[in-house]
Design brief:
With 110 residues, this protein is mainly alpha-helical. Helices cover 43% and strands 7% of the residues. The structure holds heme C.
Length: 110
């Protein structure tokens, strides 16, 4: 139950080129499970999870970053003005759920 994320181009990543992507190796079946677990997320995160107004996009973003944010919402470490809207979403997520969700969101076109 882990995701391995590596830069597409190490040299460009070292230069902090944010136009270069990443490759994420995810557990078998996690993308399909994640799709089912994110059906309710589009209400706030928009169609295709590409963001809606001030609510951030989830599509095509780094899975390790996304997992960290979900964990931080759950533990209360991330606690900004709008974070309460995520409380109910993360309350019952297991580590396996988080891996499935971020595997799916990372697979989407930004
Ligand atoms: C009721 C509205 C709402 C729903 C439903 C919702 N979110 Fe969010 N989400 C937000 C808001 C608002 C933020 C920004 C919070 C902040 O800035 O602290 C956010 C932030 C996030 C972030 C951090 C993004 C970043 O750029 O740091 C992730 C990851 C996330 N949501 C995942 C999910 C997932 C997965 C679901 C469904 C299981 C979900 N959200 C459902 C409102 C929602």
């Amino acid at each position: 139950m882990r995701i391995v994320e590596t830069p597409e181009d190490l040299e460009r990543t070292k230069l902090r080129d944010d136009a270069t992507g990443f490759i994420a190796y995810v557990p078998t079946g996690s993308v399909a499970r994640g799709e089912a677990k994110t059906e309710g997320c589009t209400v706030c995160h928009g169609p295709g999870l590409r963001g809606l107004g001030p609510v951030p996009a989830l599509a095509g973003r780094s899975p390790s970053y996304m997992a960290r944010q979900l964990y931080d919402f759950q533990t209360g470490v991330r606690n900004g003005a709008w974070s309460d809207l995520m409380d109910a979403e993360v309350e019952d997520l297991s580590l396996g759920d988080i891996v499935d969700i971020v595997a799916y969101t990372a697979s989407l076109a930004p």
